[in-house]
Amino acid sequence: MGKHRSILITAGPTHEAIDAVRYVANRSSGRMGVAIAEAARDAGWNVTLLLGPGCAPPRDGVTVRDFVSTADLAKLLDRMFCDCDVLIMAAAVADFRPAEPAKGKIPRSQERLVVEMDRTPDLVARCASAKKPHQFVVGFALEDPQDLQRRAHEKLRRKGLDALVANPLDTMGAETVNGFLCTADGQTLTPSGKKNKDGTLSKVAFARWLIEWVGERVSKTGKG
Ligand code: C5P
């Protein structure tokens, strides 16, 4: 399944500069995206991983490109999205970034620092709006557990995705995942595989299940 087809995966946080030495970031470890890259490699895909700062890369068999900020990741996607069959956007891209990072180091002498932030462009929505008929785009969403399913389906539609993995907030930085998959045709799928007592699954097991589903889906629909 998926032999020699190319998959582009993003993983990890972004760092958005406040000044020359400080940044705004999030708790993403990149483990989910790295596990997906390894599962895709093992399933025979040609894998490129765009990896955020501070994340441990996969051992081998995956082409890795590093990014730091949302702007870096945007440039890489602008260049590389058109050549992939599948994009899995697991990176925790900043929603806001400092409007004007200071040139040097902001001195500590002031009592209060106000940092104005601008909303970042929605990179996965931008890719989805430019996708060719054979391309398949999967997003991720971290949501408050309340009303997770309705919000996830709404987000999938708003961003124009083919599928979206929805996770409750505590998945970020954790070893395990408690997510499900929403599809553009309105289905909600939960992963098979041995679950822990609390209903979670290891990120590695979740990644294998997701890659198997993507492989089957793209060969059924002729996408990929
Ligand atoms: O809207 P929200 O941040 O919850 O959406 C999460 C999904 O959107 C993830 O797939 C993430 O990689 C992507 N995203 C993006 N560009 C942003 C913010 C999120 O591509 N600026």
Describe what this molecule looks like in 3D.
The protein is α/β, with parallel strands linked by helices and 224 residues long. It has one domain: CoaB-like (Rossmann fold), CATH 3.40.50.10300. The chain is 27% helix and 24% strand. The chain contains five helices and 14 strands. It has helices at 31-42, 70-80, 123-129, 148-159, 203-221; strands at 6-11, 16-17, 23-24, 46-51, 63-66, 86-89, 96-98, 117-119, 136-143, 163-168, 176-177, 180-183, 188-189, 201-202. Strands 5-4-1-6-9-10-12-13 form an eight-stranded mixed β-sheet, with helices on both faces. The protein has a two-stranded antiparallel sheet with strand order 2-3. Strands 7-8 form a two-stranded antiparallel ribbon. Strand 2 and strand 3 (23-24) form a beta hairpin. Helix 1 crosses helix 5. The longest helix has 19 residues, at 203-221. The protein is globular, with a radius of gyration of 18 Å.
